[in-house]
Amino acid sequence: MGLAITQVDAFTGEAFAGNPAAVCLLPEARDERWMQLVAREMNLSETAFLVKRGGGYDLRWFTPAVEVDLCGHATLASAHVLWEQGHLGANETAAFHTRSGELAAKKKDGWIEMNFPATPANAVTRREEFEAAIGAKVVWAGRTRFDYLFEVAREEDVLALRPDTRRIAEFGGRGVIVTSGASRPGCDYVSRFFAPAAGVDEDPVTGSAHCALGPYWRDRLGRDDLVGYQASARGGIVRTRCEGDRVLLSGQAVVVMRGELCVETEEKLEARSQAR
């Protein structure tokens, strides 16, 4: 008998948009190498692995190349799967133990609201180097706990980006967020996110990037409640609300695929590796 795995489009209310994530509920913790191999096989920007512990779940996230410390869309997808498959009641909060501390998600007015740590950016120099990498003029540059954050002048500049991913991978850190104020109705700001060093040239919708974008645009616009649009080819909406050192991220999710992992045990993988 294999393990159930579910693919969810996160930060969207319709299939084939937003950011796809795979979610795998495990009966017990599995080897890190095995989880990395599964993530590589799924070949999505993130695969989430959950193990029940106490009143919550241990949650880990893997790109096809590395384990990451914080991921918004795969957390959103995980919470959606827990409710959709009946592991949690509709009014229960999804609690997660992660490498970035305790995270929580709850249903609210047809959306899923997640409580994440804020990761505000501090200003940095090196603008000419950054402009050469993203191919656009940078009006402000900063560094968060995980990423670089660049503001450009217009939404059109964000949409037109054709960055040099090789140069971006050499910056250090996880990736680069590029943002501007929004010209489209119903949104306050737009963004794109590039993380070639983590094996993801461009991420479709990045919840954790909004832990920086929320505080950044709150300070510029003077409002806590904001709506961001991540302008990738798939696109997705993330609502943000800043509360002290936390950011409430809200999005929607849709299940698009259910399957079964017909996987080998770690022992068989090790034996096969040694036989080569």
Can you give keywords for this protein?
276 residues; alpha+beta; Diaminopimelate Epimerase, Chain A, domain 1; 2 domains; 18-stranded mixed β-sheet; 7 helices; 18 strands; globular
Secondary-structure topology with pairs:
Elements: E1 3-10, E2 19-26, H1 32-42, E3 46-53, E4 56-62, E5 67-68, H2 72-84, E6 94-98, E7 101-108, E8 111-117, E9 122-123, H3 127-134, E10 140-143, E11 147-151, H4 155-159, H5 165-169, E12 175-181, E13 189-195, E14 200-203, H6 210-221, E15 225-230, E16 236-243, E17 246-251, E18 253-261, H7 266-275
Parallel strand pairs: 2-3, 4-6, 11-12, 13-15
Antiparallel strand pairs: 1-2, 1-18, 3-4, 4-5, 6-7, 7-8, 8-17, 9-10, 10-11, 12-13, 13-14, 15-16, 16-17
Distance between the termini: 27 Å
Structural category is: alpha+beta
How would you describe the shape? Answer: globular
Count of individual domains = 2
Number of strands: 18
What share of residues is helical? 10-25%
Unreliable residue stretches: none
CATH architecture annotation of the largest domain: Roll
CATH topology of the largest domain, what is it called?
Diaminopimelate Epimerase, Chain A, domain 1
Which CATH class of the largest domain applies here?
Answer: Alpha Beta
- Would you tell me the overall average pLDDT? 95
